[in-house]
Model the fold of this input.
Amino acid sequence: MHLNRDEECILAGEEGHGRQKAMELLVALGDIYGAKRLIPISSAQVSGASFKTIGDAGILFLEDFSQKARVSVRASLNPLGLDLKRWRSMGVDEDFHSKQARIVRAYSALKAEPLYTCTPYLAGNRPRKGQHLAWAESSATVFANSYLGAMTNREGGPSALAAAIIGKTAEYGLHLSENRKPRLRIEIESIPEGLVPLAGYVVGKVAGKRIPYIEGLDLSADEHKAFGAAMAATGAVSMYVYSGKRDGRRIDVSQIEETIPLPASELTECSQSLSGDSEWDLVALGCPHCSPSELRSMAKFLKGRKPRASSDVWFCTSRHAFASCPREVATLRKFGKVLCDTCMVVSPIEKMYKSTASDSGKAMVYLPTLGKQRASFRPTRALLEAISC
Amino acid sequence: MLINARKIKSGSGSGKAVVCSCPLSLLGGVDTSTGKIQDAECESKGLSISNRVLCFPFGKGSTVGSYALYQLKINNMAPSAIINESAEPIIATGAIISDIPMVDGVDISLLRTGDSIVVEADDSCVNLPDVIEKHVVTNIVRRDRKILLLRRSPRVGSYRGLWAGVSGFIEPGESDDAAARREMEEEIGTGKVKLVRKTGAVRFRDSDTVWCVHPYLFDMPAGKITIDWEHESFEWVSPKDVSRYPTVPGLQQVVYKLIGD
Done:
């Protein structure tokens, strides 16, 4: 990889050990992927903020690193393992909290932005079309590439942090327009009510490492958020290309090598296979974090209904969305906990619950593994009906 | 023996090698408190990687594996260096944040657990002081779709009684092409052959020697084969039957590289 004089100086350690290490990481990854140079980024999204995912070693690394470096571009943080205000009522123990607090302090010293959400694009860090990013959170990466038209690879936690410190990332993969062309066409017949997340779930499995093109995918922004998150959880690719029925977008289909039909029956079958239990310890909504419009529509549905105390309920959202919808939050609180800074995927849910239902395709991947849960998929509407009467 | 490598993380590190021939996950594959490999599929299961040179093809598994390497470092159980065939981001990230010298681009099949290894990442090389690399040519001579195998005599220094091509050491100062021609004259008594092709060297390990074999394919449509003292007999054999002969190591690979299936 070619480095300019300033970059060489950083690599030689002339700007301190922390920046040197960050540069080493960018250069090594650039070399591995055959990048020719570093390019400036507009922002970073740093994963590895929950104690549950990075463990004791992660704390020690961040504490050490935070004494030697600062981020030089906007760098927002992924969710933590707890709600900073309501962690006790969540059921998180003191030990976990104290370790999580050390991570928060380290990132604060690194000057990362404490958004603690997987939806930074709904919380102030919204990239524009064509901007280069170094984002790590897989659901945010796929949204940025596919819906917002920004350009980012799916970074790891340390590499996103390194990019934030240097303000650059290696130019390879989805930073190059020739690598952003679809190689697979998926023909979705129709998506049954409430199964958009599962459409993403199935598309990710089918696509694997190839960018899929889906024609006639008329989804709202919230639906794209759920679709892409599930796709990035089951697949290895952080981007899809779509065209709506009426938007007349021109898609370069020259690289498409295969067309795969996805009948509605396959989505119904997928829904059945993920249906799991009929009763749950926890109903968890908001993976990715609920947007303000999702909070509003859930509150609208629940207003006038009564809570049914059969399971605990979490509505997971960003502090930003929470603050923008005080009345809706007040309504939702009658039915469960409205949690910020965290979610069912990265909190120590396994210490509190055994069986969890969610409307998220992404959560269906991580609840059974990371969360050690018996996971049950239900459409949002079905869950709202289950928790109210 | 010196092996060229690509620097991933700068620095130098040395120690005895611990070799895993399969991809390794550092999250779960290694006990971070004892440094012992616990991956059931790894032939080095139970061995400690602490202060050893850890050699494996590439990493697999969770991205949190980078932090597992950092945990090993904090516990003073980290390897002194890492050698990969092809580095991927998890291990590379782990090595960099943990200050563990690392290189890639090395053929792991040339390394053995217990080898003394010095990794010099900044010089882009790996040194195995106790292993000697020997350069030889191996000529495959072809006639009527058959190839010439020679049985090595009891009087030669190595691989007695095994079947081989026309082969021998490249002498100091000699080019590999010249050595290939010379061996033809010496071992089968003729230079009247047509060079069809040569391919890149094939390396393989046999005890403390790495044989670096330079393969050549010659056509010899006619003419008498006159063997010298190094061989006791010869046969014309169909390439697909080579596997039925007890041959010197790597011969099949050389034939495959030159002729294909």
Observations:
- Chain A has a mean pLDDT of 96.
- Chain A has three domains: 5-175, 181-272, 275-386.
- Chain A touches chain B through 21 residues (CB under 8 Å).
- Residues 17-32 of chain A form the longest helix (16 residues).
